[in-house]
Amino acid sequence: METGSGEAEFKEAKSLQEERRVPEAERLFRVAAEAGHVGAMLKLGVLVVERDEGEAERWWRAAADAGDRVGQFNLGILCSDQGRDEEAESWYRKAAEAGEVDARHNLGLLLIGRRDVQGASEQFRIAAEAGRTDSMTNLGLALGEMGRTDESEEWLRRAAEKGDGRALSSLANHLYSQGRREEADEWWEKGATAGDPDSLFNLGVRCEHKNDMAGAEEYFRRAGQAGHPRGAARAAAVARGIRENGAPYMPGLF
């Protein structure tokens, strides 16, 4: 815990924020931040970012320059949101090196955007080994892109067993591509139960393969309601008697 300049104002501001007296809390966070209190800089940045990204950046930069990893991470997010990817990468790396696991994950996403699968996998692995579930999923997908199928399945399974919807469908996709279709169906069922749109859609495809058109229409409809981009159209097509009998929907890492 920080002590010294601004600490009293910081504590009072936190109490006011808990009481939802936000304007009063902001005023005291500002007093503490101007006195050099890093925690207050972070809090103040969060309070003002929606109305003034420039001010939020100033406070997070002050915290980051003081060596605070959360300030560095927040700056990385802000820069990324603004399309300043090189600066975002720099701040993510600083935060990651300081031990911020979420920065590892975001850095991996940034590298994936550049098609640097190897670099991304290294970042996802660190976050995955620290227990971040969506990093496990992304690591599994990255390893699959690199042709390391056994290790890919291992990480996808670990994430799926933790209930990650994307991992549930991705593991099923992996199993289906290897001809392990009954096992794939089991994981798509689990994904559907969790509300995963890709799992719902692919169960619709599987019903279509089995001539269960009523089941196909129902799964496609539910996939559309869950946000799948093709779900509603496929449900409507099946209702009109149009069938595709295509392959399951298998989005990759990119």
TrEMBL record:
Highest taxon of source: Bacteria
InterPro entries cross-referenced by the UniProt entry: Sel1-like, Sel1_AlgK, TPR-like_helical_dom_sf, TPR_rpt
Name recorded for this polypeptide: TPR repeat protein
Organism: Actinomadura coerulea
